[in-house]
């Protein structure tokens, strides 16, 4: 089966138009802008020489526009790197490079020429990816959430993603020493998130990142953070350290480490916090680190799992297979057996409902919808 998939992907790679993922299901279309944010006040702890910490972002904004155009889901240099990375990481023979190389996202056309209207006052969600996984593995999910009326900003953390390509085409690669950190660098990711929030209020920085907006800051009174794997753990740690993050969502992420940096007076990575926290896990899994963190969460909190999923279902890979007309069945051990469209629907519904309730200050009456694949395992402070 894998050899047949390889042949089909080879044919796909020779199709210049690539393939288009479905339009997001929300009431808005979505704009997409990518670019760097450089923190000149911090040196990158994983750079070989003193270098300012330089993030790469994708900004998905909900917008009213009449038409969309296909946009590359990944720069070619990033996509070319993924086939060998996945083969080595998961010991598979199929070369999945074309799956990423040929993926196209439907995004609003001509937003730079005022032919569409992004919602500049929409709530903001920051997204942190899994360890060694570029932010671009979550484009479909970010776009789906944005289409519900949220500005979603996905963050590549340098030397954490397997490859991070900047606009001038130079790249930095994963530094495996990150795994030597007790928290797998979650504190550095948390600092990255706080820096992004700082810059959202910086009119000059926003004019450089989003030239079509001009020199206008974003309101930061409705900011939440989510992430996958260590990105989900980082979202909780960041929220516990920065009260501007008003809700945190952890997609299947272990909270690594026990001692925080000296001087915090804490025994766990997460401080006492009052913001709502949602944990979503893969099938039949309750992470022990969530149980140890549970008493520190003084606001609404919930743990639920999604049936027929694995850790890697919480990404765009199943959706890309479906959009390319390929079955995920040969990779069921890695990706689960749940329908890809169902994963997008569930993660979007739970994420948007959770943060909407947090911004409204609601402790009860959370409307999450009815999904037979989802089972609530723990719930508190409602």
TrEMBL record:
Gene Ontology biological-process entries: lipid catabolic process
GO MF, any single term: 1-alkyl-2-acetylglycerophosphocholine esterase activity
Superkingdom in the source lineage: Eukaryota
Keywords (A to Z) from UniProt: Hydrolase, Lipid degradation, Lipid metabolism, Signal
Matches recorded under Gene3D superfamilies: alpha/beta hydrolase
Domain AB hydrolase-1: start-end pairs: 126-360
Annotated protein name in UniProt: 1-alkyl-2-acetylglycerophosphocholine esterase
UniProt source species: Parachaetomium inaequale
Lineage: Eukaryota, Fungi, Dikarya, Ascomycota, Pezizomycotina
